[in-house]
Structure formats: C-alpha cells, structure tokens
Amino acid sequence: MATSTFAPKPRPRAHDSAGLRRSRNACVFGAFLIALAVGCGRPDGKPPETLEQVVAFGPTIELQENAAVINVTPDVTPDPLGGFLVADEREGQLRRYTREGALLWNIGKKGSGPGEFRSVATVLRLPNGQVLAAELSGSFTLFDSAGTAALEQIRTPFLHVQDMEVVDDSTLLVAARLEGRGGTGPSLHMWDIRENRVRRSFFDPFEAAPNKTAAVMAGWSKAAIRGDTVAAVFALSDTLYFFALDGRPRGKLPIPFRDFRPVPAETPRGGSDPVKRANFFSSFDYVADLHWFSDGRLLIPYQSLAAEQALTRTYHLFAMDRAGRRLFEVRNAPRLLTAEPASSTLFFVAPGSEVPNRWALARLR
C-alpha cells in the first residue's frame, strides 16, 4: 500500500470510538445486524476494517460561506486549475473554491430564468479553460473561465444527467439517459461538445437488471477513465464493466462486495403506498460513484437509505484492484465528496459535521 504523507493522529477520534462501540453492539444484537446487512466478521475470521485502517486523515478545511452561499447538496469536482468546482442542486448555484476553502466565485441561483438553475447536477472545467455545467434535464450551460459570464446554452439529447468526464479537447463522456428511450437503453455517451452530437453510445445496464422497475426509477451510471479505458458501474449492479474509448467491451469483473445488499427481484405490490415505497427502496444498496486511481485501485463508494429516517443516506466505502481482488470494505463511513486519483487523496464531509461545508482530507494507505 502507498505510504501516506499525512501525520497520524495521536489518539482515536471520538467518532471512531463510537463506531467501534456500534460494531460491538451489532455483534450482540443479531436482528439489528441483519437489518443493516453488516457482518460482525469476515469469512476469514478477521474483524471488519475500520476507516482509519484504510485511509490516513489529514487536515480539515472549512468552505467559506456568506449570505448568498450556503453548501447544501454539493457535487464536487477537482479543478485542473487548482481547488474545486461545486454544483449545488438545492441552491441552484455553481462555485469555485481554493484547496484551502476560500470562495473564489459563485454564480446562479434556484429558478428557471437567465443565470438560474432548476436542477444543476454537475460541473467541470474543459481543456480550453471554460466551465461547463449540466442540469439533470440535459440543459448545459457554458461559462467563461472566470465563471462570471454565461457564453452559451446548449440543449442536448440527454435526460437525467449523472456524470461527466473529459476525454479530449472536444469530447466528453456523459453518463445520462437518452430522450425517447423511456429510461432504458445505453447510459454512456461520447458527446462532441463543439457539434452537440453524440458520436457513440454504449453500456446498457438495464438489459441485465434483475428488477427493471427499480433500475428505471433508482438506477444511474458512473464512469471513470484511465488511459484508453473506461470503467463503468450501475447503481444496482455488483459488476464492474470496462470499455475502450470507442465503446467496444473490454471485459467485466464481479465486484467482490461482502456487505452490499442487492436489489430484490420482485417489486412489492401497492407501490403507490409511500410507506411501502420507502421500505422497498431502503431494502437494498446503491453504488454511488467510481474512482480509478493511478496505481490501478478502484474505489467504489455505495450508500443505503433509512426508511424510518425520511430516507436518510448512510455511506460506505469499497475498494478492489484491477484483478478483481477485494482490498477493503468499510460500512458507515463519512460521505465521500470527491477524489483526486493522481494523488490518492480523498475529500470527505468531516465526521460529525452537520453541514457539508467542513471537509476532511485523507489518503488511501
């Protein structure tokens, strides 16, 4: 494992001590254990990993806020020019922060008028320096490099935009659904931003979905690029897929989860009942993201929903190598906001923070 440059903490944090107590309690109360699908031990007899066994924590930063800027639902992307770009769907706003948390600029607000966003999903910086924001609806907005002026509004053929990755100067990999497909069909697309044209589409996770209803209603795709290969995951799948940049399949690997709860094959009747719906969607786990590090390790965060807490999310971390070997799996981790694959640096919502404007930096060990 890589050696971290972060100095170890002199003593365990209160958050981690509480996590250990919860783990011991889970081993005593079997019913609670089954409900959460968390094992007291592994098949090899070893105890579950703790977060600090697999990552080394470093400093905590606090993002600058003011009367017009509050971090509520940040979708975070590392900025190639330094710091971070943030898309906040709840606030309808884009922001740029330094690595230390200083606010450099913000633009937009919730709404449907000029300079407003109804459902901004993600943001990234293009190779030419311009900033591109995508809404769930498939409406893209291109901004100047300073994030101060909107240059172009682009209507794309996408719906439910979930992720974007830069491929080259003119091409983006977009994870989304296509208009007119009823929520099915390929979910990854090589999109020519200059011509607003989809060059090719691939990865149809709905074909093999064990529960088509859940796949359409709660499914999304995430992707990561390393060299000439795309790695892709689907929210309800336990398989990792690989593709060439032209969409040709390059194989797949089972994700060797230990605690991930698969979606049931059957959807319960009475789906219009909000209590039954909440119970159903909290009965399985969801892959949340995918990060592919320069040393070949793949980090796959996933999450659970708690029906009795208004579908509050609980976050978990899983890692495997390119050969398909499980490296670790940690339940009940802080929320992972983003990662920098080149440095193996992770950015979590700081443990114990009630709002997502305090971030804890860490590195994979």
How much of the sequence lies in strands comes to 35-45%
Helicity, as a percent range: 10-25%
Tell me the number of strands.
28
Give the C-alpha Rg: 20 Å
Tally of individual helices: 5
**Helix/strand/pairing category:** mainly beta
- Large-scale geometry: globular
Unreliable runs, pLDDT <50, ≥5 residues? 1-41
The pLDDT mean sits at 86
Keyphrases for this structure?
6-stranded antiparallel beta sheet; mainly beta; 4-stranded antiparallel beta sheet; globular; 41% strand; 11% helix; 365 residues; disordered N terminus; 28 strands
Break the fold down into its secondary structure elements and pairings.
Elements: H1 14-28, H2 30-36, H3 51-54, E1 55-62, E2 74-78, E3 84-88, E4 93-97, E5 103-107, E6 109-110, E7 116-117, E8 120-125, E9 131-135, E10 139-143, E11 150-155, E12 158-166, E13 171-178, E14 188-192, E15 197-202, H4 212-218, E16 221-226, E17 229-234, E18 239-244, E19 249-254, H5 274-281, E20 286-287, E21 291-292, E22 298-299, E23 302-306, E24 312-320, E25 326-333, E26 336-340, E27 345-349, E28 358-364
Parallel strand pairs: 6-7
Antiparallel strand pairs: 1-28, 2-3, 3-4, 4-5, 8-9, 9-10, 10-11, 12-13, 13-14, 14-15, 16-17, 17-18, 18-19, 20-23, 21-22, 22-24, 23-24, 24-25, 26-27, 27-28
